Amino acid sequence: xxKTIRGxxxxxxxxxxxxxxxxxxxxxxGTAFALKIRQSKSKGPxxxxxxxxxxxxxxxxxxxxxxxxxxxxxxxxxLKVHNMERDIVPKPREMMLSLDVPALHFGCQVxxxxxxxxWKRANVVVNFGFGLRKVELxxxxxxxxxxxxxxYDSIWQ
Length: 157
Description:
The structure is a single chain. By secondary structure, the protein is α+β, with helices and mostly antiparallel strands. The protein folds into 2 domains: 4-83, 2-Layer Sandwich (Alpha-Beta Plaits), CATH 3.30.70.330; 97-155, no CATH class. The chain has helices spanning 16-27, 58-68, 152-155; strands at residues 4-11, 32-39, 48-55, 72-74, 77-83, 97-109, 115-129, 134-141, 144-151. The longest helix has 12 residues, at 16-27. Residues 104-157 form the RDR1/2-like PH-like domain.
């Protein structure tokens, strides 16, 4: 089962942010990974839009599909919802983990037991993700913010 659904029957004035808010209320905050709102091609007195929503897990899809079997409402509009074969983002990246490091030491290992530090900086944020294959260091020096990206391939060389 994919993590993406398509819901038809939304009012034409619905924005992506309000659509994401509704999916958050129904399935939980932060469960929608990506969202697209598109207008239907039919022009009539009451034009409708459809939403394509990709969730972070299949549980969000199952929740929406079970609710839509009874009739899922957006305002006074009853939505027709079905599962999609393809996701909006085919292989979403893993979420990054973030650590607040009290001190970061730049240097190198000079022997099996000794480390020589060239530079030390306090209050550094380290972001990393296993699927992203990189480490980001966010630090400040002389009132300027810096972001240093280290890719895993470079770290081990």
